[in-house]
Structure formats: structure tokens, C-alpha cells
Amino acid sequence: LLIMFPLKPTFKSYLLPVQTDLKKTPQPPIKKLEAKLLPGEIVVNEVSFVRKCIGADSSHGDLWGKLICTNFKVSFITHDALPKQRFQVANRLLGEHDVPLACVEQVVTVNDAKGKQKVLCSNQKLKFNPTELILYCKDFRIIRFRFDEAGPQSAKKVCLAIAHYSHPADPQLLFGFEYVGKQNYGSLGERVNGVDPGGGLQMPLFDRPSEWDREIKRTGAAEWRVCSINEGYVVSSSLPEYFVVPVSLADQDLKQYLCFFTAHRIPLWCWNHPNGSALVRMASISDPLQQRKLDQRICSAITKSHPQRSDVLKSDLDKNLPNIQDIQAAFVKVRQICVIGFWDESEEKWLSSMESSRWLEYVRSFLKHSAEVVYLLEGKHVSVILQEEEDRDLSCVVSSLVQLMLDPHFRSLTGFQSLVQKEWVMAGHRFLDRCNHLKKNNKEEIINQYPAAFEFTETYLTVLSDSMWIPVFSTFLFNCSQQRTENSMDFAKSKCIPLGEEKALRFPPVWDWSQQFTSKDQALFNNPMYVGKGATCVQNGTVKSFRRTKKNYSSTLRGMPSSLRNILMDGHDSLTLTRRNSLVPWLKPDFSQIREVVESPTERFFRDWVSRPADLQGMLIPQLLPSHLALWRLYFLRWVPEASIPKGGSVTAYHKLSQLADEVEMLQSQLRQYKGATPASTPTSNPSTPSSDHSRMYFKAVSTHEPSSTPEYLSSSFPFSPVGNMCRRSILGTPLSKFLNGAKIWLSTETLANEAL
Amino acid sequence: MKSTPLLQRASGHRSTSTSRSDRSTHAAKPPFAMSSDNVAISAEFSPELRGRPKAVAKVLRDSNKEEPQLLPKESVQDMAKDVTYICPYIGALRGTLTVTNYRLFFKCMDREPAFVLDLPLGVVSRVEKIGGASSRGEVSYGLVCKDIRNLRFAHKQMEDSLIKSIFEILMKFAFPVSNGLTIFAFEYGQVYPENGWKVYDAQAEYKRQGLPNESWRITKVNDHYELCDTYPSTLVVPVNIPDEELKRVAAFRAKGRIPVLSWIHPESQATVIRCSQPMVGVNGKRSKDDEKYLQTIMDANAQSHKLFIFDARPSVNAAANKMKGGGYESEDAYQNAELVFLDIHNIHVMRESLRKLKEVVYPNIEESHWFSNLESTHWLEHIKLILAGALRIADKVESGKTSVVVHCSDGWDRTAQLTSLAMLMLDGHYRTIRGFQVLLEKEWLSFGHRFQLRIGHGDKNHTDADRSPVFLQFIDCVWQMIRQFPAAFEFNEYFLITILDHLYSCLFGTFMCNSEQQRVKEELPKKTVSLWAYINSQLEEFTNPLYVNYSNHVLFPVVSMRHLELWVGYYIRWNPRMRPQEPVHQRYKELLAKRAELQKRVEELQREERMGCPHLSL
């Protein structure tokens, strides 16, 4: 049964130990299995008597069922239940074994009798009947099906269908159109089961001028205005319809400048520092003759918008940061190392292969560059322009990181969502063309370092990343908002869906989490440690609620000690950001020579900041030492059974914290009830038992009489579970020692005896 | 309010009189300032002060003083002005250097806030005069420290060559053993509320484990360390083996370190046994007594008909030991026993690995090749092998219900690492603060890990081949476990760092000497203070607030590079660009305080309500 795979050599590891367990001759269930379909979802092909492999070294624990390819997902329906996993986050759109087609990265078919394997692409032929199908998913899962008992022809058809639909050539094949068409617009043009798009959400989507106005007011950007020259996408297809520009630039000027910028992407305002410095992003100027003049005009306009008329610095992201091809290559390598690589082999060279993937290096370069921009805005009081060729990739990362570091508002759940909406979705990041995972990993780093400063958890970020692969949400589906509008209008026409008053099909945004998760599971997004103002402080005897208000925002930054400011004002550093602001080399332990240590103002700024206690409501600068960046383990390793720590992982701390936070919340609501009701008016109310169903915590407080203990089911993969996915060696029921690296090289009679079997 | 772990420590103090660089109180005299070069410089924001506004006035006054605040019996030996400390992060700093019989204290007043360097002399491993007089007429000295740092000073050449340089004084007091002086621990007379030497009582610990029982007895054969001078006086051996036979077994085991019980599983009766290598030699010598002895150990556990012998060494090294008369148990001679080599390298390899690690992490790390540089030190690989070995032992005992015998060559380095880590995985008691102290006292101190030789307290011979970071590795492994199980340990990272700092400081007697016999002879419990007295006098600072006491849980850490990390909070703590992570713990404590406050308010309101509305209470 040993087959080598030339295309994916590391693959052999899965196939070595396949055995057919004779003792447990499979009895394929006869009962009919039906696919669970969403509105607009149709079955393309299906095959019965399929075995989903759970362990690689035996068929023990494998699941029998039906494999279905729909226009939305690869679905596996089974009667067999996995060991009870009450903790696993259940997605309302997907079953336990389902994979959205858009999440399928690679489809590999195998015929082990013939020793053949093939990577299937769209519209390809398959010359053999597959005995096995392996799906490599973009969310790092690897799922393997065996067709030993299945009809060879239908198995083949399902494989081809999965390959075809997972890589649609035409964006309109994306399921989102069908789904939204059926879900929201009945044949009579009435909204069926209507999801009010964005209506129930308490967050700006930045698709109307008022929302930009509010953001201008919030950040105190008095000299900036909303510009609507792109209404109806008349001047640029990739710009949002409304954006913000300096007051001193008239629409007339802007229209004149437009054509000199790549893709007409003129400077867009992102954010204002309380000191008046602005963060602006723009594309490069395509006409070299105009460059100087335009630069001057733009800069002087931005200077005019600064209360102190401070300078403007331009940061060329293309020169200073890795390009997106590099980033994608690094991502592929990390995945190879984390998930696909053979456990023991990758173990030995783990650190150096992590380094050679350059993933963390890139993450760090983004963080570092962003921190340098923070220094300019915060420390030097100057405005900064982020310039990138097309202004659609790197500037999304940098601008949102800068705002996360400086503005506590964006560290709240809704704030963060509005940040992603503003800097990624509306600014035209090509979600359809790119699978840019970088941003979330970046943010994860900051979260790791300042766990209490963020309202959301890493579970939230993981789920958000996963949602990119569910093509139902408008948020991540298109390259720009214009494409979003246009495509859906076309689709509506072709399907004769009456749109009524609306311009286009309205897709639910990903931010409507109830589309995917129950409210209980959504509680996993909440960080029990989040120090929103008022979450901890009991001031003057009044208890403040957990929900924080935006008003608190600027005061903390303004309250920076003036001494720090003075130090920074005195700095004389160059006006351009240097490529590598590397650390000054220091003498070796041999004490051979004395070298003067020169500390750049930027470093001084960071060091000063590090030396004082962090104000979680103020500026946060991440640790930039490479030794302090670690892989985002939940995201990259959650499906790897061997990497899952039983009864361990940071979730055990999260569990304890959540319980306590829940208790605090309960007490607070009890107090509120006392306050709201004078004893005389509502004597019937029973304040000692407040309803706890509104709690924001996933883990509820336990009564003080019960012994507190960590649930057995917690693991470092929580709330995901690697059980049910391919693992190279079964962890079900085998002795632990078999997983330990190097077991083979140990001269143990035990090992030898096992291998002889 | 944000705080660092340093704040936690600081705020835990109950003192009113503190100096900036000295986080001590009178009740609990301090360890020493462990702050990085950066944090130590700021009087206004020094970590000891964060969140302690009351202390500020006092400190500002203190900051005008150039001398340290002295401990009891500590005395200034020399003081020199115009000494330059060449800080690898900030640059040259000119100030006053003070040397006492306990510490080195440097203070630079030119800077605002003043810069302070304060370290116990015990940390110093080597003092070197670098080069002759330079053009500027300066001589410079390098200090290599045991805690990863290197320090460099320079000062003007003495015009009168008869006057001793302060660094010569420093060398005298940094290496008291080499200079016929007493180690400061024997002078330090601080009185603590608890006598730390009473933390461990072998009889009580064995009683906790349910010993003696029908299969195991406590023998007095080593009461005067006659059977084995590196073993404790209290030993647990099989009931059926009389003391006479133990002596014959001792003859066959290196240094007489016979197999004895360290831990017994409360349910299965599977045991963890430790010993040294058998004296097999090139001729494959056998000992009927030793074979019978191991058989008896196996028989004491009815659950299994096998015995696992874990030899910590790589098989090649174990075989090479035959040339020196040692070796390993052959499976022919020991029926029903299985031998497993755990591939952990010897003290020399570990020392070299730490030396490389130091090069990679101090003072600065090379940004572009961090991971491959780290990999080339093999430090994490060694950590992994030790943890993996301990995990196999714990798994065998817990899942396999099998008794295990653990040894290396002498059974006092790798064996101590393995048994104590396995016991930490198996027994929740050792994950408490006091339990961990018991574990160290038992597996490391009483069973003769040679701390004096491995650390070289007060000894100037820094090239001694007996020095090795074996204990540091063990603490690193414990830290890795804390990372993986953040709620399973009662103690925090600061507890581990404090233990390591006082491993070198020579302030407490705990890590002095090489064996229980020597400690008794030197009357350490009478003449010195135990580290546990200091720690237990302020438990609050060392407590992990997230701790959940689930004593029955066995912890199986994932021993993979995917989860192992360099302990930056220890190895990179001197870098001023490193900020201790915003501790979850701190936040948890804040929430606890808030809960207490809310509870109080709710109770008050309930009481008011009852009084205001009598009909409700009816």
C-alpha cells in the first residue's frame, strides 16, 4: 500500500499506515441520508458508502456516510457520531463535516491499486476511478475520503464536481448570488425571511457620507471633508463612493488630479491623531512629470488641514515592505510546515524552516513599519501619507495596524469591524483575487502581547479568517464596492429577481454573526479581560457598565506626559523612513573593543514607551524583537491532533477569567436592579437572581459551592477540534508514547516489538 | 492601570521604607533588582514604583544617595567615583561604584532619572581585566555573569600603583571560597516569620504518598550516610529486602546510589524509582542482588508484569560508560525489564549549549537570523528531549500502570530532571507553591544534585568542567509546562525567576553544598536562611491567580517544537526593548478585587432593603 506522491512528497506520511480493519467489517448504513441545503443551494453530485478517514493508521473510528457536492459546499452526512464534542463551535451555515467549496485549496484523487494520484483542477478529466479523495482546505484542514465500498462512477463524478466548483471561472458561479437571491428576494419581489442588511448592526459600513462624517467628528479632524465625486463610481471603479479629503482641496482640483494617480486612486484620509496629525493613503503618481507638482499640492493641502501646520511625510510602502507575492509564498510555506509536513521530520528543523518561510519576518516588518508610522504621528506630530503603487494591499495592513496601535476605539469588537470595513473592504482590497491572511496574523501578535487591551479574542479572529471562505458574505467577496454593486445587478437581471427600490442585491455582511453562529457561541468572541473604560472602575460609588463609550477615546492620548513630548520634539531624525532601522551591533563577550552606542530617536521613543506602564486605552506598540513574535498557534495548528494540548492551552486561563468576569457582570446587574428600583415601588422584584442569559461570557460563573475545575474537554485547539480530521497517527486509543518524537530511534524493545506487528 | 509583573511584585510589598533599586522590606529583605538596564534607570517610572505613589517621595530622597541600602550584616568594602559602566543598550555611563560583601552597586547621577545597576556578587562568574592602560589612561574590566549578562566597566588608571583597584576588591568578595572568606549566606541574619528549612520533612512527604505500606518500608540504613553519602538519610525500599542486601546492591551501583522509591501512584501502586548506573563494566558483570532487587520492585506493583528502565543517556554514551566500569542493565540479566534510552546529553553538552544561547541572546539579538541562530544553540532541542523523557515516564506510570526505574550515570543530574518533571506531571501536589518546594528539596537537594559544583558558588574557577546549567534546564522545562497549562500551577513565572536568581545570589543557604550530608555537617539550617522563608513570607507575589486545583489531573504537555518557546522573560530580560508581557494575572487580580467590592455593595444594599422593607423579611 505504499505509494509515493511525486507532487506532494510529504504526503506519503498519510498513506503509509492505511489498514483495513478486518474485525470490524463495515456495515454501510442503509438508511437514507439527505443533504441539508440552504436556500438556493442545489446538489450537483453525490456518492454513498463513503468512508471519512479519522485516523491514518487504522480504519477504527472512521465514519461512514454520503459525500455530496453542492453549489456551495462539500458535505459529508453520516449517522456515526464523533466522540461527544459539545464544545465545538457549530456553524449555522455548515454541518460538522462540511467544507465550503471556496475553502477548498486543492483536490487530490488517488487510486491506490494503480498507484496513481492526480491533482484535479476545474474542467479536467480523470482517467482512473479514484479510491480516495483528499481535500486540502484553505483553513488548513486536510480531509480524506475512501471510496472502497462506493460506486466508482459516482465517486469520480463527485470528485470532478468538487474540483470544478471549488475553482469557479466565473464569479457569478459563486454561491453567494444564488443564496442571497433566494433568501432575500422571493419571486414576487418581496423580502422573504429578510435579513435587513446592516440594519440590525451597530456599526458603520462606510457606504454613506454620514458615517464618514461621524468618523471625522470622532477623531476631531476638523479640516477634512467628505467628498462625493465618485458617487455612482463615475471617476474610479476601485474607490468607495464617498471618502474624505482635505478641506482645502476642491472637487474641481481632485478631478484634475485623478488621472495622474494609478487607478485614479487619489489620497484618501484614514484617521486623525488627537494632536491633529493625519494618516492618509494614496496610490503612486503615474506621470513622472507631474509627480513633483502633485506631491507639493497634496502635501500642502494636508499641511493646511493640520492645526499646527505640521509637515507631511511620505512613506513608500513598496520600497519598505515585502510585496504580496512574497507574502503569499511565505504563507504557503508556513502551511506546508504546519500542516502538511511530516510531523517528525519538520520537528527537527522547525525553527529554521519557520525562519526560511519568512512569514514571521514579514509579520514583523509590517508591525515595525507601522510602529514607525506611529512614532511619526504620535512622537513627531507630523501627518503621514502611505503610498503604494495601487494602494490596495500593503496600505490596508499598515493603516489598520497604525490605527489599532493608536486608537483604542478600534480595539473594541465593533471598532475593529468598522476598521476592517473602512480600511479593507471600502478601500478596495481585492478579496476575490487575494487570500491575504497577513493582517489577522499581525493583529494576533498585538493581542498576544496586550491581552487585556482588546475586546475580542483570537477565536474571533480565527473565525473571521475562516469566514473569508464562505462566499455568502458580501464583505470579503469582491475586489471593490463597485464590483459588488455591478455584479449583483447583472445577476439580478439574469435571474429576473426584482430588486424593487434597491440598486443591487444586498448581501449580508460577515459582521452579522448570527448568520453563522448562535449567540452563545458568539460569546467566544468576547475577551473577559478587555479594559473598556468602565469595565473595571467603580467611580464615586456608581457602577459603570461593561459597554464602553467612544467619548473616552482621545483623553488618554492627550494626557501623555509633557516631558515625553519634549524629548520627542527635540529629536532630529531624518524625514524619511529608512529601510532597515536595525539594532546597533554590540560588542561580543570577548570585550575586544568599545563601540559607541548610537540610539536613533525612533528607538529611543520605543524604549521610553516600553519603560513606562502601558495605558491600555492609549498607544500600544508591539514588541518588535524577533524573539517575541510567535506563530499564531490557534490559527495554524488547531487541526493538527498531535499539536493539541489536552486540558491545556490558553483557553484554560480564558475559562477561569470568563467565569470571574461573568460573576462581576452578574453582580453589576444586581446592583443596577437595586438602583433602578426603589424598594417601595417594586417590592416584587427579586434582585438576588438576575437573569444571566444576557451575559457576554461564554463560560458562566459557577456557584461558589461547586468546586471550580477546568472542563475535561478544553484543549489548545479550543473551540475547534482536530478530532474528525485527518491525523497522521491516530490519537484515539493509542499510547501516548507513540507520538513522541524520536520514538523510532530509541533503542527500545517495546518500540521494536510494536514495529514488528 | 496597566502593570508589569514587576509592579505586581512591588505592590505586594507591605513596606514603607524602600529604596528604588532595592525592592525589599525590612520584614523580607530583598532578592536584588532584576530589572533590565532600561527600567532600572528611571526614578520616576522605575518598575518597583509603579502603582506605589506613596513611595515616591521617599525614593526621590534616596535617589540622591550613591550607596545602596544595605542588608543586615552587609558592609561596604570599597567605593570608587568616576567609574564608567558601558551599557550595551544606552552607552557609556559615568557614576559611582560600590562593592559590599554581598553586592555590586553602580549609580550614575548624570542622567535624569538616575541609572542604577545592583547585582549580588554571587552572580559574577568571572572578572577580567581587559587590556592594559589605554590612551585615555583607562583600564577596563569585564564581568561575565551566571544570569546571561556581561557587564563592562572602565576607570582611570590608579596613579599610585599601590592602591588596589576596586575591581580587585570585587574579585575578592565575588569569590569568597577561593579567597578564604565566608559566603554571605552565612552572615545574612534576616529573620523571617517562617523557618524555610522546615518546609520539607521526608517522613511527612512519604506519609502523604501513603508510605510505608505493605510493599514499601522506610529504612534507617542511611541515617549516618554510611550506605551512600550523596543520598538522603530517609529512603524508601521494598519491604522484602533487608538492609544487609541493600548494602550488596549498593556495591553494584555507581557511588552506592541504590534504586529507591521517589513516588508511588495512589491507585495503581506503580512507582517511580531512581538510582545510578549499574557497575557492569566491559566484562558485563552481573549482580544477583541487584537483579533480585529490581524484580522485587516490579513485584510490588501487581498491575504490571514488566518494569521499565529509563536510561537518560544516549545509548552510545551509556555503552561508553562500560569502559569506566559503568554501563546499563542488560535485558538478559533483568528478566521482564525493558530498557529505554532517552537520549539526553551530558552536562558538558548542556553547558556548551547555554554558552551559545548566551551569545545569541545577549546583549542584542540578530534580527534576520533569529530562529536559525536559536536552533543552532540546540537549547530548545535539549529542553524537548528532557520533557519528552519525563513525559514517557509519566505516561508509562499513568497509562501503563507500570513501575519505572530512572537513572543516568550518577543519578544526580538528568535523573533528577526526569523524576521531578514526571512527578510534576503526575501529582498535582507538586504544582502548588509548597509542593514545588518539597519537590526541589526532595528530588534535587536531598538526593544530592551537586549544586555547589554545578554552580560554583564563590569559586573563581569559572572554567571548572563540573559547572553546568542542569537545574536551569529543569526550571525552563517547568516554565514550558506553565505555558501549556496556565491554570494548572499555583505559582507564577516570577516564582521561577526568583528561584533562579537566588540559585546564584548566595543570599540564602538553600542551594549551598552538594548533598544532604554536607548540609547537615555545615549546619546550614542553623547558620543560613532558607529561600523558602523569604518566598513564603510574601506568597502573594508568587501566586498564579488563575490556578485551579484539580489535583487528580495528570498533565501531558505536547513536547514539540511547535509548542516550545524560548523563555524570553528570563533569557532576554536585560534587553530594555523587552517589556514583560501585560500579565493576564494582573487583570485577574483586578477583577477579583472588583468582585469583592461589588459583593460588599450588594450585601449592603440587601441589608438596607431588609431594614427598609420589613415586610420582605417576613
What does this 3D model show about the protein?
With 757 residues, chain A is an alpha+beta fold. Among the domains of chain A are: 43-169, Pleckstrin-homology domain (PH domain)/Phosphotyrosine-binding domain (PTB) (PH-domain like); 209-322 and 358-524, no CATH class. Chain A has helices spanning 12-15, 152-166, 175-184, 209-219, 251-258, 288-304, 317-320, 324-340, 343-348, 350-357, 359-379, 394-406, 413-425, 438-449, 458-467, 481-494, 519-522, 553-558, 562-570, 601-611, 633-637, 651-676, 749-756; strands at residues 43-52, 63-70, 73-78, 99-100, 104-111, 116-120, 132-137, 142-146, 224-227, 243-246, 268-272, 278-283, 312-316, 383-388, 538-539, 542-543. Chain A is globular, with a radius of gyration of 28 Å. The N terminus and C terminus of chain A are likely disordered. With 618 residues, chain B is of the alpha+beta class. Chain B has two domains: 76-174, Roll (PH-domain like); 200-579, no CATH class. Chain B has helices spanning 5-12, 37-41, 56-62, 166-174, 202-208, 243-252, 288-299, 315-320, 347-361, 370-377, 379-398, 414-426, 433-446, 451-456, 470-484, 493-505, 516-521, 524-527, 531-536, 539-542, 568-571, 584-612; strands at 76-87, 91-100, 103-108, 115-120, 124-130, 138-145, 150-156, 216-219, 235-238, 260-264, 271-274, 307-311, 337-341, 403-407. In chain B, the strands form three sheets. Chain B has a seven-stranded antiparallel sheet with strand order 4-3-2-1-7-6-5. In chain B, strands 10-11-14-12-13 form a five-stranded mixed sheet, sandwiched between helices. In chain B, strand 2 (91-100) and strand 3 form a beta hairpin. The two termini of chain B are 45 Å apart. Chains A and B meet through helix 10, helix 11, helix 20 and helix 22 of A and helix 2, strand 6, strand 7, strand 13 and helix 9 of B.
